[in-house]
């Protein structure tokens, strides 16, 4: 489970993201339709870079390896207005 912690001056939020949701999201983001739409939007903006299609097994292996690294802090950010965002596994 990935935990996204958002800290403001007077409020704290913790958003748990299960790994099953990551599998579902990776399937949607790696679909042919999504990649075609993203590449068309990139071409309209004038860039020549394209998003390649990734192998589904490689994404699943990546999520599995990340799930074994409990407590690993992926992101820690402090904004100017005092908001802190932390993403941990």
Task: Walk me through what this model shows.
Strand 1 (2-7) and strand 2 (12-17) form a beta hairpin. Helix content is 42%, strand content 26%. The protein is extended, with a radius of gyration of 17 Å. The chain has one domain (2-88). With 89 residues, the protein is of the alpha+beta class. Helix 1 packs antiparallel against helix 3 (56-67).
Short account of what is shown:
This protein has 89 residues and is an alpha+beta fold. The protein has 3 helices and 4 strands; from the N terminus they run ββαααββ. It has helices spanning 19-29, 32-45, 56-67, and strands at 2-7, 12-17, 73-78, 84-88.
- The secondary-structure class comes to alpha+beta
Strand content: 25-35%
* SS field, number of helical segments: 3
Shape annotation: extended
What order do the strands of the largest sheet run in, or round the barrel if closed? 2-1-4-3
Number of strand segments = 4
The end-to-end span amounts to 6 Å
């Amino acid at each position: 489970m990935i935990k996204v912690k958002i800290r403001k001056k007077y409020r704290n939020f913790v958003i748990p993201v299960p790994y099953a949701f990551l599998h579902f999201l990776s399937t949607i983001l790696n679909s042919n339709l999504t990649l075609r739409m993203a590449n068309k939007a990139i071409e309209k903006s004038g860039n020549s870079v394209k998003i390649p299609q990734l192998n589904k097994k490689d994404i699943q292996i990546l999520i599995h390896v990340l799930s074994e690294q409990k407590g690993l802090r992926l992101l820690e950010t402090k904004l100017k207005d005092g908001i802190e965002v932390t993403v941990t596994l």
